[in-house]
Amino acid sequence: MTEKEPLFTPPRFHEDVEFHRHTNRSISWLELFYDLVYIATLIQIGNFLSSNVDTQGFAQFLVLTVVVWWAWTGETFYQNRYVVDDLIHRVLVFTQMFAVATIGLSISMAFGDLYVQFTLAYVVIRLMLIFMYLRSMRAHPESSALSRGYVTGFSLGIAVWLGSLLLPAEIHWVGWLVGITIELTVPLVPRIRVLQQAVSVDYHHIAERFGIFTIIVLGESFVKVLDDAQGIAIELPQMIFSTFGLIVLYSLWWLYFTDTTDAVVEFDNPWKPFTWIYAHFPLAASLVMFGVAAKKLFAETWEHPGDPVHPEYRLLYTGAVVLFLLAVALIDASTVQEEAQVGDNQRVMVRVLGAVAAGILGVTLTEVDAVGFVTVISVVMMTQVAYSIYHTRRDVSSHFTA
To answer: pTM of the prediction?
Structure first.
């Protein structure tokens, strides 16, 4: 807020804000601050996975990730449709941030003694979002039906979350899954879908918000590896691993930020926007998994040099790459490349084939060490990037010679 702005300003629909008609809307400092609190919580989720690299731990990791990701997505879409930064809104957002931090503090024991604390923290996050939509119902009558639909659906989800506290401690997470499933399906209800198409989003802003969130999660992979390897002497095995490990990391960046961010979401299609949005959940999960797996494999290079990599670490790294490529395939399927000569189906097929290849290698390469394994996976990822470079150059050449 500046000194010239009123202390209490009702939410305004993004298309009604004068500056947005002439320039692309920029991400606010409050939104960036908000994102960082979520990233801190995702770091704790990664630490949880790092301490529980088994089937049960992975399933619990997915539950925790979808809860946090969905909480972030709900607030992000609200701040996409409505421009508001008054005192009331800031108090609501700061309250959300406090609750997100509480979730972060509860992660390690969310399925144990702190499940009540975790549950109530999530409920507070969603209650603040409901209060925001209640404000919008009064301030912007044209979108009041959509806001009312969100309030109703999210309130039902909150009721189920609170009801989960009545379940035995060992199965309280079942209530979480039911509640989050209800909330995830709210935007897919036919009536809500119609209203969402009538009340448009700010396309540039939402793509940038998801992009910023993704780049921060991706960068967190560096943090995990550097934190775990602090103080070690770099020798040849670590140097080789780092070289090819960074190639994989750079490839993840390339495939999302070069290919998918240059594409346009087909928001006129009734289902492709939802595919694009929901595909960012496995994308975020894969990047958290990748950071944990990269840290584990890097530790193998000095703790067990030359030995076959531990199966759980190999499969976690493989799963991260496979899940990432499948998520990018879904994003590709829901977007169109402007002036592209390569069909969308071909791009999707290449990503799926890459995921299949990485999966087969991850399952069959049981006798290679960490250095050899990451080197082989890097070849798969370099092939994906080479495909993108080749067809991007071809599309550009075709455009200028047309």
So the answer is: 0.90
